[in-house]
Structures are given as structure tokens and as C-alpha cells.
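Exam revision sheet. Question 4 asks you to relate a sequence to its structure. Input first:
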Amino acid sequence: MAWLQILLFFLFITLSYSQKHTIFQGQNLRVGEKLESPNKEFRLEFFSLDANKTHYIGIFYNLPSNMTLFPDDYRPVWVANRNNPIPYASGNNLTLDGEGKLKIIYGRDSFVLLSSYNASRNSSATLHDTGNFVLVELNQTLWQSFDYPTDTLLPGMRLGRNFKTGQVWSLTSWISEDIPASGSFTIAIDTTDVGQLIIRWNESVFWMSGPWEKGTFGNVSRISHYDYVDLSFVSTEDEKYVTYSVNEPQTLSRYAIDVFGFIKERGAAGPFGVCFYKPSPGCVTRESIGCPIRNNSWFERRPNSVSGNRFRFGNNNMSLFDCKRQCENNCSCAAFNSITATGTGCEIWSNVSILGSQSQSDVFILDGERDLVPIRNGSDANVPSTFSPPPASPPAISTDSTPKSSQRTSIKWWIWLIIATGLTLFLGLSSLCYLLRGKGKAKATALLLLNQTANRSKKRKIDKKMSHEVQLYSLDSLAMATNNFSPGNKLGEGGFGPVYKGELPDGQEVAIKRLSTSSGQGLLEFKNEILLIAKLQHTNLVRLLGFCTQGEERILVYEYMLNKSLDFFLFDSNKRELLNWDTRFRIIEGVAQGLLYLHKYSRLKVIHRDLKSSNILLDADMNPKISDFGMARIFGRQESEANTKRIVGTHGYMSPEYALRGIVSTKTDVFSFGVLLLEIVSGKKNNSCYDSEHPLNLIGLAWELWREERALELIDATLIESCSRDEVMRCIHVGLLCVQDYAKDRPSMSSVVSMLMNDTRQPPPPPERPGFFIERGDQRAEISEEVVRYSINGLSISELTAR
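Answer key, C-alpha cells:
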């Protein structure tokens, strides 16, 4: 009987576990497990969309077997980490830790934070039958997935805004059908007196519903394909939102914004918002671009292969709709399609001929294009040739290699001659203006762009949230937050200008960075940081909350980092003792994960170009966050390196090929990371001298000690008792690999993370001679403030400073 009791016990445990719908404090949800809502209508689990390369956590409908299903029914209705995919691994888990924070854990203690609330008492996270994943503490809701929708609206969810809390509910499309990262389209409610739904493509209005009248919107004849859907509009002093309900139980219902910007209702094109294929009520007419053929023609999706002159864009983060806009803005474009199997990237054609065979993927062809000449099966067809115009040129498509099978051209040769002549004159005049006006012209252009952004935002209302949750602040609100930028609120000063601590009206503490008029950095860096960091989301990147461009002011608002920057502790003889080895190793790991995200997993391939200890900020738990993206460079997914005449960065952290020849690549950041890693291990600055006879910098000292098998002598004396010798040796080894003289010898950040985690099957290779490891004759005293120098050829170098 004992064995029967044991069997029944394990059976009870298995059944209980399989029906789990709640995670309690201290528990995990591992890969292969799932939460199910009490009535089994929804489930939450790990999933992958790219052949088990990355992991997401999502909520899905549990699909009944007795119902007609659509392909979209199998898609997640909510994705927790849509912009932060994690490496696929069996050890990944969703956890509610001892502090009540909801995290996705991966790798060696790396995580994506979903909820930052601290729960001092028992907390739990439950998946409800509404599809809402709710974190509660003693029956008080701390966080819920319904407040952070992705692309899907479920019954009971809201589109709108809570004016008391500032909470905004909106939907953002996927970047493609197979990648859930935030795409180009959003739908939200206009919270002005008009009270209508608006779909935007980036910042441009794409479709408007018209005002709410008599139970519907002006441009929407019917709300749903189904009779059981009831839409409601709620407008009070505290909040304004749209929601809907269904009056039939056990009904799969969802509205989702598609990658083409229209609303889909359970797999079918919704009854409103369709502007991609044909105009419908509410579609906003775009401005004419001087191409008459575009005004009355629309693109048709066809399962055909095409032949003609082809141009392929280097940015693989473009959505299919972004590709359509590129085609529309090129008067010779007759067809377009995505590049990757996941539906991103862009290629466009001119002088198109349709091949008779069916294609594995659809091609979007200009409907009514007169030059579409079908080619019979078996006939000769020209293979499209990939070509690229000069980087600074618009994507105009050459017609020099027109297929013989095409009997007519849609644009006469003399029109091309006029276009080419006009383009040549335009480029010549532009170049002349740039040479005459120089940097003043660049600054004026940046100022114009920023003022245009500010003016558009002011029309919508000061302090209203913009796309990607970046907010435009008024100067008055920031002056109030910082006690009128008082010296007592000043945290420090860098190349950009002074940084102040502030407190917003809702009690949130922020760091406010104010551009100084004497700053070597300027409007271009300011604009670059706003446009770039708003699209990046990772636990090891500092979060930009907003900005201000009022009058002559240029201000950035960041989340406040309680423990300032890494150099504040690392190079202070008293404070460095607060950095024990576990903390330092966690900082090394976090910075490596942040760089890996920038180089490989973010929507944009980003080279930071100014990675250094003062740009590593530390939160209350001493977790690192990479900051200051004013110098960052965006790369195309297929782009590996580039040349630049304007070299920016900090002396001592720049790689040889970048400092001397202007060659920038991901290996530029790898070199900087290697220097930073050696500084963290040793507590020494790279720019100081450590040998009286042969003035060695830190890289040189580490290299000499490594060759003499005395590498452990590099360890900071305060770490002798707390450090793991194996981890320290591994870090020194990885650091020397990162600072090797030749970029091709340096590891990628993927390899760096694997080596730091000791996940490699083979031991790392021995390091070769590092770059810039001896500095003869440069024994200048420490400089009291950061200086940016611009030479005649555009060189910009920041000297390392003590703070």
C-alpha cells in the first residue's frame, strides 16, 4: 500500500502543477512549463519564432478543438519581452523573486525586468480568464499586462489614457509577421475633445476614425464582423478610453494592429483602418511627391517572381510597409518586397517583368503599371542584379540594364536626362553650401529638425507622451523639478554639460542633463541620442524618459541612477572598497550583455563608440546601465564596418584602427570593453603610468604581467580576500583578447559573454600583442574636466577625467 500512496501523491502533485495559474513569491516558471487561467481559456509560456534561437514569454488562447480557427488564432495575444528577446536555453525561467519583482532570468543571473515594484509582503502573479496577467500584493494590484498591451486588444482591455496616473494604453504593430519587436504603426485614442482613434505610422497620421457619435466612430460604418461585439467609449475627468466586450461566452475575440497598419479582427481585415491596399474612409492622403503615377495607383500583392533592375537597402529592420514607402518615394519603382524570411528588409525594382513561375513569397507590384510584360515559361529571363548607389544618394534606380524582354519603358529617356541633370545640380549646390557653411549648417539643420519635432509635439500638448514612451517636457516643469537648476541639485558635469537631480510631480526621481553652450558636443549628438535610445530597451541600458527643446534649451531626462557612475567608485581609494568581487563581476556581465544587445539583438545594430567607466551608471542595487548614446553609430544588419572622418570617443578607450584610420565596427566597442574590464579588475585607469623606466599604461602592465605569468598581481588589493581567482584570471584573459591590436583577432561580444560565463567547450585562445599598450612621453597630469577637441579634419577626442 505504501507504493500506492506514493504513486497517488506524485499523481496529485503532477495534476496540481499542470493546472497551475499562479506564481508565488520565490517560485519560477521554467521552459516547457505553462500557466493556465482557471477556466483554461489562456496560457502563458516560453515560445520561439526563429528556430529556437531566441526566447519570448507570451500569452496565448487555449484553442478549442470544436471551433473554426484562423492562422492568427495561434499567435500570442501579449508578448512580455517583445523588444528584449533572450538567447534560447533550457535554463531560462520566469520568476517572482524575494523582493516581489517579476523577471525573466537567463544566462548567469542576467534578466529582463517586467515589474520593478518591491513587495514587502507575500505577492503572487496570476493569469486570469480574461487573458490578464496580474501581480498582486494582499489583493492590491501592483502591475498587470493589460496596462502594457503589445499589438492586440482583448475584451476588457483599454485604448486611451488615465490622466491621474499618466498611464497610456495603445497598441503597436509587430515589425513583421514573425518578429514581435515594436513596428512602425501605433493605434491610440486622441484624448482631446474630438476623442477619436488615430493610427500613426511613426509620427505621421495614417488613419483617423472620426469622432464618437451614436455608438460608433464617424469613419467606421460597423465595428465588427460579428454581432456579439459591443464597443464602448468612456470619457470622464480622470480618464478617456475605448474598450469592448463580447456577449457570448467561450468566444475567441481579438483586435490586432497589423504590420501594414490596419486593424485585424480574428484573422480577417477589420472593418476599419484599411489603407495599405486601397483607400477607405479616414485614410490620410499623403503629400504628393511629384510622381503622377502614384496618385491613382495602388500596389497589388501577387505570388509571382519578377525581373528587372533591383536595389536592396542595407537596413534589415525595415518593415514591409516601410519598404512600400521607399518604393512610393522613388518614381521609377514598380515593385517591392522584403528580403529576409521573417518579412523584414527591403528591395525594390524598376522596369519590372513578371515571370511565369510562382514565387515562394508574394511580391507587391504597382497595380496598372503599363510595363508589366508577362514572360512565358521556358523563355529567357534576366536575373535581377543587385546594385547600390553612393551612400549619400537617394535610392534612385538606374535603367542602364533594361531587360530585352521589356518592349517599352514607362519614362522616356529625355525625362531621365532631366532628372539626372537636376539631381547633379542639386548635389553640387548642396556640397557647395556645406563647404561654405560647414558646421554651422549642420547645427542649423539639426536645430530645425528638433524645433519641428517640438512644434508638432506642442500642438499635441506639452508633456504628452510621444512614440516609444519618450516624453516632451516643458522647461518650467524641469526647472521646478530641479529647484530652478540649483547648485544643490547638481550631480556632476561632463562633455555634454551639467547633470542635475530632479523630482517630477508624481514623485519620480530623474537625472536631467542640460546642454552647455560651451559644450564640444552639440545639436547633432543631442538629436542622435533622442532618436536612438528611444528605440533601445534593455535592462543594462539607461532609459531615456524624455527631452526639452524650448527656446535655446536642449535637455535630456533620464531615469535616476542612485549610485552615479562606475568611475565614482572605481577610482576612489575609499569608495572602491564598496565594490567587492561579486559586484564587479556582475557589472562586467551586465555591460557585456548590454553591448551584445546593441550589436546583435536590438532592432538597430548600434556601435556605442564611447564606452568608458563614466558612461556606466549604477542603480540602487549596483546593476550597470550603459549611458550616453550621443556618439553612437547605427549600422545596417549586413554592414560590418565603415569609415568615418569624424572620430569621436575618449583617449585610452579607442581602438587603434578607429583612432588612426577612422575604421569603426563592433570590434571598436569590444576594444573599449576590454579596457573597461581591465580597469574593473585592477581599480587602475588605463591612461596612468605604472612603470618609471618604461612608462606603461594599464594595457601594457596587464600584457607584461600576463607574459611573465604574474597576471594575478593585476588584481585590486581590496579584492584579495573576496575574489574568485578563476574568475579573475578568466576576466584578465578575456580583457587581453578584447584589446588585441588587430580587430579581426578580437572576439565578438557573443564570444565574450560565453567566455565570461565559462560556457565555451574549448579554452579561449592565448591573447596576442595589444594595441596602444605603451605611451612614451605622454605623462601629463590629470585634467580636471572633460574636454572635446575638434581638429581640422574633424577629429574629436574626449580626455579621460577624474570625477
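Marking note for examiners. Residues 189 and 197 are 4 Å apart (CA to CA).
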